[in-house]
């Protein structure tokens, strides 16, 4: 995962037409950890507090997806990143960074801290999250199933204003 912005990438809200491709990417990215089936994506899209986005290349091909839950009351908001997935053929092209920034912009509209879980062996993702203000706050043993891989819980403190997908503070 790179910190450069992928200039030809278009971020847009996910709709049901994207589910089959997201399921395909899940199977490529997470084969040992119970990849999400179509019903999981349908359930996530149906929840009013969730925001799911897709990344499309210059040809309109879906090359990544991401989702966040916007939780808590308005006076004590928080958010939880549920997933970020990028086509393995597009890794290191800035798509993960672009999707993360878009999710953080969504969370920033309400304020509050942002949480996520990440495999302890996913060094590129951990570096990306740390670069965007996340810190490890805990360890979840055997979090990912069926592989039994551990996860770090990471937190990004509440920020004043929010960053748009290009990283500009508002």
Write out the CATH superfamily name: Gcn5-related N-acetyltransferase (GNAT)
In terms of quaternary structure, the protein is: single chain
- What is the H/E order? EHHEEEHEHEE
Helix content: 25-40%
Instruction: Give the mean pLDDT.
Output: 89
Poorly predicted segments: 162-170
Write up this protein:
α3 links the parallel β4 and β5. Strands 1-2-3-4-5-7-6 form a 7-stranded mixed sheet, sandwiched between helices. It is globular and about 40 Å long. The protein has one domain: Gcn5-related N-acetyltransferase (GNAT) (Aminopeptidase), CATH 3.40.630.30. With 170 residues, the protein is α+β, with helices and mostly antiparallel strands.
Overview features:
170 residues; alpha+beta; Aminopeptidase; seven-stranded mixed β-sheet; 32% strand; Acyl_CoA_acyltransferase; protein-N-terminal amino-acid acetyltransferase activity; N-alpha-acetyltransferase RimI
